[in-house]
Each structure stands twice: as structure tokens, then as C-alpha cells.
Amino acid sequence: MPVSPIAGSRLLTAVVAVALVVLTGVRADASDLKLWEPAESAAAVEEESTGDAVLELVDRQQAEIDQLLRRLEAVEARAAEAPDSRLRFGYDRGFFASSPDGIRLGETTAPFLLKLNSWMQLRHTVFESEGMTADQNDIEFERLRLVLSGHVYTPDLKFFTQIDGDSDQGELADWLDYYVLYDIGHDALGLDQNHLRIRAGKWKLPFNRTRAESGWKLQFADRSVASSFFDINRSLGASLLGQIMIDETPLAWEAAVFNGFNTQGFVPVRSGQLDRNLATSARCTIDLLGEWGTDGEPDLTQHENPAIRAGGGFAYSRVDAEGLRELESIRAVDSGAVLATILPPGVDAFNVFLYAADLNFKWRGLSVLSEAYFRRINQFSGGQVADLFDRGFLVQSGYFVCPNKLELVGRWSRIVGDSGTLGDRRQSADEVAGGVVWYIRGHFAKLTFDVTRVNGTPIRDPALNLLPGDDGILYRSQFQLWF
Questions:
Q1: Rounded distance, CA 180 to CA 234, Å?
Q2: Residue 128's pLDDT is what?
């Protein structure tokens, strides 16, 4: 049955309208899709008997079709320019939910991103004591982390929070980190990204390389004795950080003000745990040769060309008895005794200066990491005590005997100082360790086995499975999973 030209025009209009909705997902206004409605009825058209009238009608219909197609192109263009407000979910080294253009505040588009990560370290520890401390044989969650991170309102305003529930604290949840990081240089001053930022909250304070390295990117099951002794760990505070270019090489830096050394979890508000003296610290790093990368301590990327990174740090705090818990966090070489307990009666305050320097190398599966540490304690109040000086170092190396899969590692750390004798004589503590690491899926899934010989440890660090005065051999087997 033949179809009249008008019926064909209406059918084509409907088809194009449906195609517009299907292909663009945008429902056009009626004004966008309205076709010419002929004034003549079907009967009148049928009465047209001349070929000229039919051709005139076809021409008018073709003109209307061309107009509709132009409007369709305009609608498609508007749809392409419209913000994508769909909520997206997926996995990209962490589960995420994002809104590319979540909401609009006036004329400003405000993106949002939430990312979820988790990682754990299941460790079996055996310690064979050769001194006065007890043996150990147990299985524990050394780290049991849940991480939420992302940005709000703008990609220049990031947040990071990390909850820990390891066995050292009875597997109770602890807010290990929580901070915001604002790229004020990029957002407000028009600088390149990461050139000037502000951080506020609780986080790893800038000082030494080993603490700055994440616990899931280490070569051994944990950090060295020396790096833990000369450490300021976490606290609440604020910092400025950024980078400057030196001959096209970025120098990264951070300077912070915070409550005090190792004061994470301390109760504020005149509780007797914190004194009124804020502490300061700073750190900078520069890649002297090549690009260091982001694979942590081992050379997982198998650098084709040598890479060298250098860094340095400084920290200062005035500690007094007003914050008794903070005062008791300072330990002495080599017994690990609390310094405040061996000071003369009446001494209730002193200065602590810390310095660190590191030089590190990677090339073709070989990594060599070295750090030097220094601590000076002086200006004692309430009694006469000589200036105390402690120093230490760490030398650590790893080599992949099977590229990216099997690595042999070794290290030596040493601490020497006179803080344990109040300046009378020097004492020392050593750590010698070796191990093997099987990288199943890089750092995301790996097995670590290491053996450590200690001859007296001046620290109390459950993460290292060591207590003050430990003398003996430590065996650790650890499985790590990160996703």
C-alpha cells in the first residue's frame, strides 16, 4: 500500500526523535523537533493532480527534514558540552566512588572523589632471648589498615584518613592518620600543582626517610632499630610543603609545627600528657640522578639507568615535666631506659635536637639505602647535666636474584651515644639482619622472611617486636596483602 508524502514525513519525524533520545540520552524540547504541519488535508493533497504540485510538496518536506537534522546536531552539541553528573564506581588501586561534576556552587563546578583501600600484614614472630628479657612465639596482625581518601569541592582539596586495628593494641580501632591537604598554590595562586600546599591534621611528621616510607613498601618486615630510635613519628599539627625547581630537578620540602615528638594518641587540654611547648620539624629531598620512582625501598621497576636520591631532616622540641607522658617518651642509649628516670632529682626540662641525612641508590634491581642520625640533648632545667649526644646510622641493600619476584636483603644499623650514662661514657647497640622477599604481585601481595641479631635495643617498639634491653635473635615471617 503506497504511503502518502505527509505520512512519510511524520514517520520520519518520529524515527529521528526516537534516535535523538537513544543516542544522546537528552529529551529535546518540542520546539527542537516540531516539523512543518501542512495546511492541506490528505484529501486535498490527493486532489492535486499535477506533477508540479507534488514536486513542490516534496521540496517543502525535504527542507523541513534538513531543518530537523540541523536542530538534532545542535541538541547533540549541547549534550556533549553538558556536565557529566553521573556517580561512578570502580577500582583503580582502590575502590572508588566519584562524581566528576558533583554539584555546582554558583559558577564553580565542585568534583568529589572517595577511594577505599585496605591492607594487612599477618606476622609470625619468634624471639630467642640471650639476655634478661623473655622469649616470644606468636602470630599477630602487625598492621590492619582501612584507608579512606579522595578530594572534596575541588581536586586541590584532598583528604586522607587511616584506621589501624593491629594486635599491638588488642585489635582495637585507632585513628592513625587524618589530615586535609590543600594545594593553595594551584587553586588560588595559579602555580603548577604541588608547588605550594598546606597540610593540617595528624600524619607522619617530616624528618627521616624511613618513617616517610609507607610500611607496605618496605623491604624487611619492618623498620630498623636505629631509624626507630631517632624518630618523631606522628602528631597533630600543620605544615607547609611544596617543591621548587633546581636545574629542572624538583626539590621537595615540608616544614611542620605540631604538639611534640611521638605524641600520637596523647590527650590534650591540660591532661598532664602534653606540655605547652610546640615542636617543629622539616625535611627536603632531591633526585640527584634519574627518577627515583614510587616503588618504595626495593628497585621493583628495574631502573635501566642509575637513580640517586638525597634527603635531610631537622626536628626540635623543648620537653618539660608539665607533659609527663611526653617527657617519658625520650629514651637513652643503650638500655632503652626512659631518660627522665635517670636524670638527677629536680631536672624537669631540656631541649632535644634531631638531625638526619640520607643517600640512596637504585639500578637494575639493586638498591642501596643509607641514613645517618644525630641527637643532641641540652639546656637542662633544675640541675646540672652535661650536654648529651647520640648518633646512629643505617645501611641497607637489596638485590633481585629473580627480577621483580625474588629479592635478597640485608642491613646493619648501629646506635652510639652517652645519654645512658649522662655524658660519662659512650654505649652502643647494634642490629644485623638478612632476609628474602617473594613479591607475588609487587607490594600488593608479598611474603617476607627475615632474621635479626640484636645486642641490646634502646627502644620499645611493638611494630619491630623488640623491647628495651633485648639481646638475642629475632625471626619474622610475614604475609602482606594490599588492595
A1: 15
A2: 98
> Is it the case that residue 279 has pLDDT exceeding 60?
yes
Pairing mode of beta strands 234-246, 249-258? antiparallel
Closest to 249 measured CA to CA, from 192, 288, 202, 208: 288
pLDDT of residue 30: 43
Q: What are phi and psi of 326, to 5 degrees?
A: -65, -40
Q: Return the amino acid letter for 293.
A: G
Residue 402, classed as helix, strand or coil, is strand
Superfamily of domain 88-482: Porin (2.40.160.10)
Helix axes 5-24, 51-81, angle to 10 degrees: 10
Q: Tell me which residue has cell 635479626.
A: 452
Give 306-343 pLDDT, tens digit per residue. Answer: 999 999 999 999 999 999 999 999 999 989 999 999 99
Question: Please, what is the Cα angle at 388 between 385 and 394, to 5 degrees?
Answer: 165
> Would the pTM count as exceeding 0.70?
yes
- The burial class, CB within 10 Å (0-12 / 13-18 / 19+), for 92 is exposed
For residue 4, the tally of other CB atoms under 10 A from its CB is: 12
Q: Parallel, antiparallel, or unpaired: how do β-strands 174-182 and 366-381 relate? A: unpaired
